Amino acid sequence: MAKMTWIHDLLRYPDVIGREAGFQDLKEIHGKWIWEMVFGTGDYTLQAHRGSFKSSSLAVAISLMLVLYPKRNIIFLRKADNDVAEMLMMVSKILRTEIMHDIAGTMYKVDLEIEGEALDHLSTNLWNSPMGAPQLLGIGLKSSITGKHAYYVITDDICNISDRISRAERERTKLQYDELQNIRNRGGRIINLGTPWHKEDVFCKMPNIHRYDCYSTGLLSSEKIRELRASMAPALFAANYELTHIASGDAIFETAPEFMEDEELLWDGISHVDPAYGGGDYTAFTCGSLRDGKVYLYGRIWKKHVDRCLEEIVEHAMRLRCLPCYCEENGDKGFLVKELRKRDFYAKGYTESQNKFIKITTYLRKYWDRVQFLEGTDAEYVRQILDYNEQAEHDDAPDSAALV
Fold first, then answer.
1. pTM of the model
2. Taking the domains of the chain in order of start, what are their residue ranges?
3. With CB atoms 3.0 to 4.6 Å apart as the test, which of 11, 125, 208, 328 could cross-link to 113 if both were Cys?
4. 2-212, which class in CATH?
5. Edge to edge, what strands does the sheet with 136-140 contain?
6. Domain 222-402: which topology?
């Protein structure tokens, strides 16, 4: 029993196993992903941004499954048949490392060996199937799965840019995903990894989604995020790194936004609140200043009644010295201005008469190539602006930004 203790301790931190197997970029967050794939219960979906090493984490997880649960087979699926070989090669490499041999040797008192290896399948000497099926089978999503069964059904990037641009492809992917329910053994699990590409893609069918965008993993620096954002279209950056969807063909703000870090550039500006009073609207808040022909903006957005945002609005406006704070009085008869003034806050009311779409396209679009956002601006605030068109579901952020 004492010999097993080191394995129990090590499996609590599977990212360590990954690093021992040669994946030096794996960190604690990857250990969390690996642990959930190997030891979790029920179906599990991991959405993570590009460059987050989710496929490396999956390779470590599959290798551990093959050793820890040698009576449970795995079917691994990617979009196309020729995409699966890379993952199987990674798993094969991990299984040949010293750390995996030590785990298998301690648990089963055998030397771990790979048998029957090919580009689309792999088995270890721990596996003994009376049906002759491989321990790990890799197939493309469009391949026939009739008659196949597995305890673990794992999908990796079965949704890609084809699903973004083609409704037919999205529907085809969803139909193929539905078929996976028929090959999962009773009590087995479906594990999904990938990046969403469209609001109606296959991820709308996947359960238990855990999202890790480029701001939450800590794997990309602010400078790298700015570099990536500037290198691609806003819609592509949103899909790949923010795990969200924005319009592309009918977008009014087509170029990627710029960001800066000096909050003093906002000092002596003004601020604006676009309040929500219930329903599905957002409360949007903007600080802005005009200096040397450039427009500097800082935005926050909350899916809350404005009453629940007042303290934060006052705090941000005071910190960035953006006063007065303007509030439209058309709908609330001056209620918001009065509430802000109760806090000894410099708020001003005004009456709006201009059409919202004309206002946004006239003012915000006119200055768009001169706009820079302060780092820390809410990602959802920026996304609403990039997603804006005349039929947009939400316009609170661009409406607020246009008024400062």
1. 0.69
2. 2-212, 222-402
3. 125
4. alpha beta
5. 114-115, 121-124, 136-140, 74-78, 150-156, 184-194, 44-48, 209-212
6. Nucleotidyltransferase; domain 5 (3.30.420)
